Hints:
The protein has two domains: 5-94, RuvA domain 2-like (Arc Repressor Mutant, subunit A, Orthogonal Bundle); 99-175 and 228-281, Tex N-terminal region-like, CATH 1.10.3500.10. 64% of the residues lie in helices and 6% in strands. The protein is built from 14 helices and three strands. It is globular, with a radius of gyration of 25 Å. The protein starts with a helix and ends with a helix.
Amino acid sequence: MNVSPKSVEATLELLAEGGTVPFISRYRKEATGSLDEVAITKIRDRSIQLDELDKRRESIIKSIKEQGKLTAELEAKINDAETMTVLEDLYLPYKPKRRTKATIAKEKGLEPLAELIFKQELADPDREAELFVNLEKDVKDLNEALAGARDIIAEWVSENQEARAKLREVFYKQGTIRSRVVPGKEEEGQKYKDYFEFEEAISKVPSHRLLAMRRGEKEMFLMLDIEPAEETSLEVLEGIFVKGRNAASGQVKTAVKDSYKRLLRPSIETEVRLGSKKESR
């Protein structure tokens, strides 16, 4: 914020004592170094953000520790996280979740197969998958075994911090917001006719236009999508996870595509929607 530590400390002390922003900026200039209301508000808001970050950090460490999965390396990463987004990405693999396709596959004993495929060293995944066919666990054939392993890999991909960070950047820099009219609402939603068939880069769309499209969606006249070209996203993800050209790598590539369509794209799109909503206020 380009403010001296002494001024920040004095401002925080005055705020803690119950001083309001207008009062501090007007009557305590000697203590703050003549900070104006804008600077004091920024200090107050950032302090609140950091307090929330620390509380969440403590909660996450406690949760992972109770699961018996907290390593020194993971704890260091959590303590070094400077934003809530990074913190939540780190927590995602350990966050209690509802029953998913991956948890069902794990219940069927398919996690070891997923691990073998994910290493991409198997010459013949089909032969390995045959060993996991188990009618008692409802794994009827090798195709079901491979599908379950891919479900597990897809979840691993969706929970990977590097993948989420890179994909988030792609969405913000190369994402496009598209709006379409809800079929049958053409007459009723005439005030949104400019957005019946519209698209623009999310990085360039003006806030007033974004707000108009959001209103149209809220009033159920428009359907909105925010995403980059699918090929771009898949290229980024495959660069992280696909390590070869063998049959196992082919299974991983299929799992990556499923992860993007079913898990990552909806999740990151929601984040971008929320982020762009805050910026447009």
